[in-house]
Amino acid sequence: MNNNNFRKSGLALAMAAAMGASAGADAAIELYSEAGTRFSVDGYFNAFYVNRDDKLNDVRNSDVKMGFLPNTIGFNFSKEMGDLTLGGRSSFWTTINDSLQSPTDTAIDVRQFYATVDGSFGQVLIGKDFGLYARSNIFLDEILMGFGSPGAATGVSFGNIRTGYPYPNPSAQITYRTPDMGGLNVAVGIFEPANTTPGAESEQSAPRFEAEVAYAADLNGVALTGWVNGRHQSSENSTTEVDSQGLGYGLKASVAGFSLAASGFTSEGDVPVLISDAALASEEDADGYLVQGSYTLGANRFVVSYGETDSDQGNFETENTSVAAFHNVNSNFKLVAEYNMFEQTTKSTGADAAEFDTLALGAVITF
């Protein structure tokens, strides 16, 4: 399979970050490779036993659910055409959390459906893929293959979304990526803008702009990765104009089995969960950060994670603490144990809005 295409996919980045540097290259099964044409498939399957203590309502529940990353199957192709390589990816993401609400009608969504053109100039991607703003913040999260904080009412877990970073929405886009320049990589793109001012004469006269600059280097045995990403868009109607913009950043250092990472974001005119077609009353601020440490010993990786988000726009403050252990049975089979403590308060009143302690025990299989 063409590495340039696969390593750009969200699932590949997630697997490479959480399972080791070689995972992105080894995860897919190549089904066809002949005369410069390649086709491959990759998959991600997981399930967790979840025991959650709702301290505010004095309720404890046991569930069997998926983790932060949904179950996924992806198809990848590439074809060499002279000086160009044409490629593409489609991936289908499914939940197991609706097994009693929709017993035979499991929800499936498509978060990636794009084509790529690679050459000496770099790569152009057209279609639907994860955004660039907050992309590395989430894909380099040490508990990406774990469970994380409680999320939507359907039981979907949020990892550290809204407790350290926002979600890089899969969006229609045209994105350009430079070739690797000695560890420096730059991506810039135009995206479908969100209508944050629905009403009379609502318009978005320009696309949403997103970009990310990332740099990776090895300094005397210390592996360093740093990144900065951002987003800007405007929406207006006959009475209101809302400018939405955000800046994300982070740094990760690894040496001799130890890894330390710190990331953060700041935004205006944006509820720091995801950007969507929904009215925003103002351009108020939000910010957050995530700090993590991990230690890898043989087949085991141990993680401590803490994140916070403070949002005027969303009128909440959150904090999330996780301790987790990951054990690689082999390169495609992982066991996970995680304990998560999440708290949320209403910023305007200081009242407690949520307090959950969650034990999650799960297994992850990839191919």
Describe this structure in words.
Residues 1-27 form the signal peptide. This protein is mostly beta strands and 367 residues long. It has a single domain, classed as Porin (Beta Barrel). The chain is built from four helices and 20 strands. Strands 2-4-5-6-7-10-11-12-13-14-15-16-17-18-19-20 form a 16-stranded antiparallel β-barrel. A hairpin with a 6-residue loop joins strand 8 (149-150) and strand 9. The radius of gyration is 20 Å and the shape is globular. 42% of the residues are buried.
What Rg, in angstroms, do the CA atoms define?
A: 20 Å
Beta content comes to: over 45%
Strand order of the largest sheet: 2-4-5-6-7-10-11-12-13-14-15-16-17-18-19-20
Give the overall shape: globular
- N-to-C span: 14 Å
Task: Tell me what the CATH architecture is.
Answer: Beta Barrel
